[in-house]
Design a protein that fits this description.
It is a single chain. By secondary structure, the chain is an alpha+beta fold. The protein has six helices and 13 strands. It folds into two domains: 87 residues, Pseudouridine synthase (2-Layer Sandwich), CATH 3.30.2350.10; 167 residues, Pseudouridine synthase, CATH 3.30.2350.10. A hairpin with a 2-residue loop joins strand 12 and strand 13. The two termini are 25 Å apart. About 3% of the residues have low confidence.
């Protein structure tokens, strides 16, 4: 790879021209930060560091606010490689909670419907996972960054949600994705817990619903998949496959292409590089 991927403690030149292919900062996105929050903070620091007001800073593949893990931040000419970086396979660890659905398919919205879950066992989930391997069609969550006639899908969904109106379920077309590997890591009853949260910097706009208090069964699943795969949609579909409803209770992006949790920077470490 021709762009620079700096390690913690690297001393960066003050001239962006010294990095003709740009810089990629693999960042561990904090919980309850949007991808835009990370970009905003690092872009401000990069503009100050390099003294270039029109410096381009972006990311190669958004990550949900209630997810953590690998977010690739591109600086300068590396922004031209963002799509290439985004096209690589990803790996996630997802906590999927059965027995209820939410409009966003995760904890950002309150439960909208409850379902029977007493029949769900570890073997039930393990058997259902087999049906998700390989190429398939997937409908993205309406609360997503998909574009509908030039408008982000989440903007349409939130507009309906604020008005108390039902969200149309036929606005998004199917996309072809591939799930390469699935591994059931654990299965059990969810216990009441408080997610780790950077309370000082987390966005106050991001709501978190605690569904752990209901004693729903929960599966932890490792997922290796192609670009464009929505893990919240996978949780929705897995719930239907086991004869119930489900939502995403937690998500970690462990791998994005050649980058993994072993070589990411914290936001603080990334900012330190740009001082």
């Amino acid at each position: 790879m021709s762009f620079l991927v700096p390690a913690p403690g690297t001393v960066l030149s003050r001239s962006i021209e010294d990095y003709p292919e740009g810089i990629v900062l693999p960042v561990n996105k904090p919980y309850r930060w949007t991808s835009a929050d990370v970009i905003r903070k690092l872009k401000y620091a990069a503009i100050k560091h390099f003294g270039k007001k029109n410096l381009k800073v972006g990311h190669a593949g958004t990550l949900d606010p209630l997810a953590t893990g690998v977010l690739l931040v591109c600086v300068g000419q590396a922004c031209k490689r963002a799509q290439e970086l985004q096209d690589h396979d990803k790996e996630y660890i997802a906590a999927i909670r059965f027995g209820a659905t939410t409009p966003s398919y995760d904890l950002e919205k309150d439960i909208d419907e409850r379902y029977p879950f007493e029949h769900i066992t570890e073997d039930t989930v393990r058997e259902a996972l087999k049906g998700f391997l390989g190429q398939q069609e997937q409908v993205a969550p309406l609360f997503s960054a998909k574009s509908i006639d030039g408008v982000r899908a989440y903007e349409i969904a939130r507009r309906h949600y604020r008005r108390g109106e039902p969200v149309p379920d036929n606005l998004l077309q199917c996309s072809r994705i591939t799930i390469h590997q699935l591994e059931l890591l654990s299965f059990g009853i969810s216990l009441p817990s408080s997610p780790l949260d950077d309370a000082l910097n987390a966005s106050s706009r991001i709501n978190v619903t605690d569904t752990s208090v209901y004693g729903f069964p929960e599966a932890s699943v490792r997922i290796r998949c192609s670009k464009g795969t929505y893990i919240r949609a996978f949780a929705r579909d897995l719930g239907e496959a086991v004869g119930s409803g489900a939502h995403l209770a937690g998500l970690i992006r462990c791998v994005s292409g050649d980058f993994n949790l072993g070589n990411v920077l914290s936001v603080e470490q990334a900012l330190e590089l740009l001082k």
